[in-house]
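Handoff note, outgoing to incoming analyst
You'll be picking up this chain. Sequence as last confirmed:
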Amino acid sequence: MKIKLSQGYWLNMMIKNLNRITIIFLLMTIQCTTMKRDVPNEFPIPSALMTPVSVFIETSEDLKKMSGERRLLLYNEYSNYIAACACLAEFNLFINQEPPKNEVYDHILKINFTNTVTTPKVAKVLLYFFIFSAGIIPSWMSDDLKYESTLYDNNSNEIRKFSSEGDSTTYFQLLLAPAMFTKYWKKPHPITWAIQDLYNSSLISKINDY
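Most recent structure output, in case you need it:
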């Protein structure tokens, strides 16, 4: 039995393949990220570490529908964002589930963050020119990033709320190759901001003072 495929089917397949090619090409192309937020983006290596904290992250991700491998990758990803601050002696991570009483440290940081794509239409159009010009014509992608967090003690008493926001613009262009070896290659995350702001608050005792 022969099956005749419609023009719409082939058009959808072409669009899907083009999107895949776009993603692969972007990953292979040099990029430069600029960040803006209301606190310094640069965070020096701390001289003392905070005592252990339990981190509870609320996300729209449905862990129950994820495979075990995808769930592990998500935990590793969020753990890396927390560790990027390099200011915690130790932490444990809970995603979309209240930490069990017998597993929490003296303090619990509850984090909720959002990442909203705000790339203008002209940049989306330029993205295809960027692909077909092999990176000569530049393009960019923009995101609005924000987080809200609350610090609790291990009896669930609220200590303080934190919040911050910023925007991230990633530029794609072959001439930005030198940026690959600088701080502009890295893209900070709101989870890292939350840990940095907690450290700067001095609400958590440092390991030297503990």
